[in-house]
Amino acid sequence: MHGGRFSMVLAFTPHYDRHACRLAAESTSIVVSVEYRLAPEHPIPASYDDSWAVLRWVAPHSTRDGAEPWLNDHADFDRVFVGGDSAGGNMAHTLAYQVGTIRLPGVKLVGAFLTHPYFGGVEADDKMWMYMCPTNSGFDDPRMKLPVEDLVVIGCKRVLMFVAGNDHLREPGRAYYEWLNKSGWKGSVEIVENEGQEHCFHLHDPTNENVVALVKKIVDFINQYLLFLFVMKWGVFFFSRVYGMAGREIIILFIHFME
C-alpha cells in the first residue's frame, strides 16, 4: 500500500506503480494495489476502511468464483502477504491486526512487510494525524500506537520491517519492533536498518544498490515461505517413505517436522 501521510499520491503514481510491478515480477506474486481515499477530503478512517474493503473483496476469490478472473485462476490464498511503506506500512500493520481479530475466511495471511512505517511519536506527524483524523483519541490513538498487549493478536506469523538511518520515523519504527517483541505475539519479526538513507528512498532510483538490496529482502521474505512449503511437501514424502525402515523414531521426527 502506498504512503503519502494518508493525504497524498495515488496507487498509480509512477514510482509506486513501478515498485509494485517490480515486486510482482521478482517474487512471481500477484500484487493488489489499494487506491484508498485521501484526507482531508475523506478523513481517517476512510483509508483504513478502504484497505480492509479491498482485502474483503479479495477473500471470496478463494472459492474461484470472484469478480476478478486473474485472481480466480492464479492466486494462492494460503499464501497472502500485506505490505506498504510510510502510511501504507501503518495500514499493513492494521490489516494484520484486523485479520487476527476478525478472522477473514478464505485468506491465510502469512506475513507483513512494513517499510518506514508511519507511527506516532514524532511531534509534527502527531499534529498532522490530529488534523487528518478529527475523530481521533489523541496522540495515543491505537491506530498510531497500538497498546503492546494488543499486538499479541497480529494475524500472521512473520513480520519484516525496514527503517532508514536518516528518516524522522526511524525511532517510532524501532519502537514498534520492540513492542511486537515484548507483546507475547507468537511470530517472528526482523528489522533491517539502512544507514544513511532517507524516508522511502526505495521509490527513487531503482538501480541504487541499497534499493536493490531492499527489494531483494522483501522478495526473499515472500519466497522463504514458498521454500518452507516445498520442504514440508518433500519432507513429508521422504519421512513417509523411510518410516517402514526406521521405526518409531521417524514418526516422532515426522510429527515435529509437521509442527
List strands and helices in order, with pairings:
Layout: H1 14-27, H2 46-58, H3 69-74, E1 80-85, H4 87-102, E2 109-115, H5 123-132, E3 158-164, H6 170-182, E4 188-194, H7 209-246, H8 248-258
Parallel strand pairs: 1-2, 2-3, 3-4
Helix pairs in contact: 1-7, 2-4, 7-8
Offer a few descriptive terms.
Rossmann fold; globular; 259 residues; 10% strand; alpha/beta; disordered C terminus
Folded structure, characterized:
This protein is α/β, with parallel strands linked by helices and 259 residues long. It has one domain: Alpha/Beta hydrolase fold, catalytic domain (Rossmann fold), CATH 3.40.50. It is 47% helix and 10% strand. It contains eight helices and four strands. A four-stranded parallel beta sheet has the order 1-2-3-4, with helices on both faces. Strand 3, helix 6 and strand 4 form a beta-alpha-beta unit. Helix 2 packs across helix 4 and helix 7 runs antiparallel to helix 8. The longest helix is centred in the C-terminal third of the chain and has 38 residues. The radius of gyration is 20 Å and the shape is globular. The chain starts with 13 loop residues before the first helix and ends with a helix.
Rg measurement, Å:
20 Å
CATH top-level class: Alpha Beta
Number of separate domains: 1
- Measured by DSSP, the beta-strand proportion falls in 5-15%
What is the CATH third-level topology name? Rossmann fold
Main β-sheet, in a few words? 4 strands, parallel
Which strand order does the major sheet show? 1-2-3-4
What class, by secondary structure content?
Answer: alpha/beta
Overall pLDDT score: 86
Percent helix range? 40-55%
